[in-house]
Each structure stands twice: as C-alpha cells, then as structure tokens.
Protein: MazG-like nucleotide pyrophosphohydrolase family protein
Organism: Actinocrispum wychmicini
Amino acid sequence: MDIGSLQRLAWDNKVLKGYNTTDIPLEFCMLQEKTAAAFTAWRKGKELLGEELADVVLYVASIAEMTGLDLQYEVKAKVDRNSARSD
C-alpha cells in the first residue's frame, strides 16, 4: 500500500465511523496521546508497539487529509531533502 492510499483509507474510515474530521487541534492532541501510548508500549516491552505505531501513522495521515496535504508527496520530498544534505 502506498502512502496516498493509506491516507484515503484512514480518511474514509473516519468519515464512515463518524470520527472527528474538522477539529485539527483535537486531532493533534489525539496524535500526541497515541505517540505516548507507543512509547509506553516500547518502554514496558509490551507486544502492542506495532499496533500503537500504526495508530500514530493513521493519525498523521488523517491530519494530512484534514489540512489538504498530499502526504506521499511531502514524505518523498523530505526524503529527497534529507538525502541531499551533506551533514
């Protein structure tokens, strides 16, 4: 699955289930909560780390959709910029 498809699937799921699709600050807070849950899973050696990291990716994809960003383009551009850096 490519990032663009993931972004659309995450968005479609939010719409279908009636989840937040308009409150961007709330979505960032939820992202922060999911990131903390991933850290806790890693720190405690839980087997849920993969699931928690997947939640983080889905929240990022949703924020990209809410703000009109093409996340696939943005990630590729960032990878290219990082590759071109000399440090």
